Amino acid sequence: MKKSKIALVTGCAGFIGSHMCDYLLKKNFTVYGIDNLSSGKFKNIKHIKSKNFKFSKLDIKNSKFFFKRKKIDYIFHFAGNGELIPSIDNPIKYLKNNTINTAYLLDQVIKNKIRLKKFVYAASSTCYGINNSKTNEKAKISIEHPYALSKYLGELCVMHWAKIYNIPSVSIRIFNAYGTRSRTSNVYGAVIGVFLRQKISNYPLTIVGDGTQKRDFLYVTDVCDAFYKAAINKSNIEIFNLGFGKSKSVNYLASLINDKKINIPWRPGEPKKTEADINKISNILKWKPTIDLKEGINLVLKNINYWKKAPLWTRKSIKNATQNWQKYLK
What is the pLDDT at residue 184? Predict the structure, then answer.
């Protein structure tokens, strides 16, 4: 009988991590999931009943004993701080969780002599800064805020360990992932989660600027499919951009959710347009997106009650939460 492939998913109770667990279990993997539940939620994995899923409430920096005598074929690394705005208030926290913990995880692979087939790192397209055009992997790196810095330094760690210590690795720069189970934490974050909570409360959707800014939204199951294909592909020390490949305006996004809206001041340090050039990932991994924004938002709206207990962000609370962002990023 063919042995099950074994994967470790860090941040397994988070948004993308929990979907990655679902995806891998359907592919007959044995999945170890670790999460300290600081931003991830146990309810995101509560539905998993498979005996092939093994969850540990664990922080990466305290995971030394977790790796002892374990066989792991693949690591999918999603753990870390994911919201942009709060990084301006907590840069050291972001560097510890997104950069240092990534290095620590890689170090555990070496120290425990784990013979990985692939380490797949969830990087961020924010490393491109204010690019405002269709972006390929050779575009200039332009770091605009601590979140982007922490994720990019994490990527540099992955590429360095891959080169020096021969850990097969790829880094995937995610543009705007969305879908069910996206974050509902007490910090101001991703636009779709904010909009959904506002819709539940019949509060107008808060449009930053005039809403003509465009983002490249990619549904979470398409994200997981790309990560899986990156893991099983022979590519090594490669960076891939991951998005739908066609951006949509925030006004269009809002129109799919609610007609009521108000405009709030534009935030410096953010691009007017993000759009992934997905030629590389499509050609090498034979991957392509399957769910467009309209279909994806319909799937999310069917599960809108997930955001019922999320914080409601109002014009005033957003102003308070973004004060330092506006102060430092001019």
Answer: 67
Active-site residue, 147 included: yes
Tokens in use for 56?
Answer: 């540990």
Question: Tell me, what CATH number does 82's domain have?
Answer: 3.40.50.720
Q: Name which of 176, 193, 188, 170 is nearest 280 in CA terms.
A: 170
Same domain assignment for residues 296 and 319: yes
More confident residue, 327 or 161: 161
Domain that holds residue 224: 6-177+217-242
Task: Read off the pTM.
Answer: 0.96
Instruction: Please report which residue ranges of the chain form alpha helices under DSSP H.
Output: 15-26, 91-94, 101-111, 146-165, 191-200, 220-232, 250-255, 279-285, 293-301, 315-321, 323-328
Q: Which of 32, 94, 121, 147 is catalytic?
A: 147
Give 186's pLDDT tier (boundaries 50, 70, 90). low
Q: How confident is the model over 29-74, as pLDDT tens digits?
A: 999 999 999 989 999 999 999 999 999 999 998 888 788 878 999 9
Contact 167, 149 (CB under 8 A): no
Type and span of the H or E element at 136? none
B/e letters for 141-166, b = 16+ CB within 10 Å, e = fewer, are: eebbbbbbbbbbbbbebbbebbeeee
